[in-house]
Amino acid sequence: MESDKKSHVVRDVGRFGGALRPAAAWLCVPALAGCAGVQSALDPAGPNAAAINFTGWIMIAGATAIFLLVMVLAAAAAFAPDRVRWLGRRGLVVGGGLAFPIVALSSLLAYEFSFGGHLTRGDGEPLRIAVVGERWWWRVRYLDENGGAQATSANEVHMPTGRPVEFVLTSPNVIHSFWIPSLGGKLDMIPGRENRFTLQADRTGTYRGVCAEYCGEQHALMAFSVVVHEPAEFDRWLARESEPVTEPADERLLRGRQAFIDWGCGACHAIQGTEAAGIIGPDLTHVGGRLTLGAGTLPNNASTLARWIARNQEIKPENLMPPFDMLPDEELTALAAYLESLK
């Protein structure tokens, strides 16, 4: 009779465990999904990110080993006190509670210093990109040998593979933090101060950067795209980005350009090759070629451009651009089509 009860219990536990296994597998999916993707520090695409990732795993392994050791000693002290009186000896308490943390933490600090300086400098002649953290978007300038702007963009960074890129980081208003998880660590952008660090990408692709420090109401909608090219492709892209726009190809685009001028958009935005020369908002010279609008808020196409122009305060409240919902539909669609054509 007793053996029958035991067999029933074993079968029930087996069924229960079998039912839990699929649930446990599904619960692991979100955790595994965080190990890869366009914004994962666990999927490094450059040497800086790889070094940080390796250091992180060393610290996790060390912390896990220490935690398990402490739990074993605590269990021994709780359940076998007569056999482990040696745990209370002064030498062990001083060695394990004082000397060991000092040695372990000092070793980690020395290890971090051994490669931390290299992460900020890099090797070789870097490409220099100045990034300004605005409210709430990113002004991006590609600098020439003399420190002048060879090309200006917004909310999107383009990099070549295999070449260090020195980022010159500033902010005119509040503190932001510039972070591309797949390429390296983060660095603050502080008003009145210029911070610099170097990143390198070894794998082509599109990655996601973010502001990693709360900077105001739209902090969560302050992302940017990072597009990594092969070196020759990057040179071609930068050459195109440096060129002014050409004359619109048809009547509708001409109406859109005229609407841009008539409605005063050039007071805040610049389009190289036209009379628009504003510096308050993003440079729109090649806005049609960018992946997103509103610092990663919307995908970039004619429909979302029209929506952003007319109703941007509904999409991203308290951004510094007023809504232009008074535009007639025909002018709005022509203006959006014109901006989309700027690639």
Question: In words, what does this structure look like?
Answer:
- With 343 residues, the chain is α+β, with helices and mostly antiparallel strands.
- Among the domains are: 115 residues, Cupredoxins -  blue copper proteins (Immunoglobulin-like); 90 residues, Immunoglobulin-like.
- Helices cover 43% and strands 18% of the residues.
- Helix 5 crosses helix 7.
- About 2% of the residues have low confidence.
CA gyration radius, whole angstroms: 28 Å
Oligomer: single chain
* Total number of strands: 12
Cα shape: elongated
Q: What is the name of the CATH class of the domain at 127-241?
A: Mainly Beta
The unreliable regions are: 5-10
CATH architecture of the domain at 127-241: Sandwich
Biggest pleated sheet: 5 strands, mixed
The order of strands across the largest sheet is: 3-2-1-5-8
Please name the fourth-level CATH homologous superfamily of the domain at 127-241. Answer: Cupredoxins -  blue copper proteins
Q: Helix content range of the residues, please? A: 40-55%
Quick take:
The chain has helices spanning 2-33, 47-79, 90-121, 231-241, 251-262, 302-315, 329-340, and strands at residues 127-133, 138-143, 149-154, 156-160, 165-170, 176-179, 186-189, 195-199, 205-211, 223-229, 292-293, 298-299. The chain is an alpha+beta fold.
